[in-house]
Every structure is written in structure tokens, then in C-alpha cells.
Amino acid sequence: MLSGSSRQGRMLLPAAFCLLCLACAAEVGAQPAATQGWAFGLGTGAAAVSFGSGPGDGAALVGLWIGYGLNRIVTPYLGGAYADIRSRGLEAFDRLTFSHVDLGVRLHVAGRRRWVPYGDLAVTFWRASDVLRNGERTATDFASVPTLSAGGGLAVYLSESWALDLNVKAARGTLSGAALSLDAASFRLGVGLSWWP
Q1: C or N terminus of the chain, fewer CB within 10 Å?
Q2: Is the distance from CB of 50 to CB of 88 less than 8 angstroms?
């Protein structure tokens, strides 16, 4: 049986290969890439969440963000994402909705080309809600104190204003609620579209 880290590694290999292929193909026709002014993004992907020393639980992820590029490098943003997690790491819970809210900044490697790598640092707030136990919803919700998330990505520009956005982000923190405190870690892998009007 594969361990959780082995499964995550095998899931990331196809995504990394696609990312490399897109980056190489996009370099063929260099053109200006917009990274200034208002920006909007929408995407999907996968999230892996672990609680304490338990195994990681994966689920599909949906997210969006809005930001403003102060210059070609620095873009502060506000973003949100959620995933419907079926819990194996907590015997007390069967399923929960795990939400992320990010207040962060993207740091682009500016240049006149169609692919733009960036780093991503954010203060992240977590919330676990819609908790199911033995198939029934409980009144328990969990929230986190602010924690730091870090990651990066690659924007592959389809035109000057539209980009295919591939990104990864990881965070570790503590969830509290109903007299319980849980150490948690999350890993997000996303793909979506960014628009710089």
C-alpha cells in the first residue's frame, strides 16, 4: 500500500510535466505580459489536509482571488478557496468543509515574455465547517489563528491580459473549536485563469 507522501508525489508528477510543457511552448512567441493594475483569478485543483500526525486527506479545490499590481513585480491580493474533505485523520469526524482565506502578495519575475514565474506569501485564515460525524452534521466549527502560507506559481500568458495560472501553496497552523485544538497542515495545487483588464 502506498504511503500518503508517495501518493501525493505521484499525483504531482503529471502536473509538473504539464507545467514544464506549457512553459516551453509558451516561450516560442515572447510578448509583453500584464502584471500591473487590477487582476482577477478563478481556478480549481486539489487540496491535501492533515490533522496532527494522522494521514493526509485529499479533495477537489475551488478558489478565486482579486489583486492589484502596484508595479510589474508586486501584487497584493485577497483570495479564498475551499475543499470538501472526507476525513481519515480524525476518528471523530467523517467529513468537513475546509476553507482558506489568504491576504497576501505575489512577487512576479517581470519580463517581456509569455511565461511569468512568481512567489506567493500570505497570511492565511482557516475554517472547518459543515462537520459530519457518523453521517450527521454537528454544531462544531473550527477556526484558526492567522498562519503563514508560502508557495509559488507560473503564469502562462495566452494573450497580454489572459494567463493560465498554475500554482502551489503550503501552510501549517492550529485549528481551535469545541474545546479542542488541532495541529493542521494543508497543501494546495491549483490551475486556473488570471485576467488583467
Answers
A1: N
A2: no
Contact 130, 149 (CB under 8 A): no
Whether 100 and 108 have beta carbons less than 8 Å apart is answered as: no
What is the distance between the alpha carbons of residues 170 and 74, in angstroms, rounded to a whole number? 20
Q: What pTM was estimated for this model as a whole?
A: 0.76
Distance from C-alpha of 193 to C-alpha of 158, rounded to nearest angstrom: 10
The tens digit of pLDDT for each residue in 174-188 reads 877 666 677 888 899
Taking alpha carbons only, the member of 87, 104, 88 closest to residue 96 is: 87
Q: How far is CA 111 from CA 15, 27, 35, 114, 184, in A?
A: 24, 12, 10, 9, 37
Q: Provide CATH code, domain 4-195.
A: 2.40.160.20
41-62 pLDDT tens trace:
999 998 888 777 666 677 888 9
Mean pLDDT of the 149-163 span = 92
Residue carrying C-alpha cell 511552448:
25
Helix, strand or coil, per DSSP, at residue 101: strand
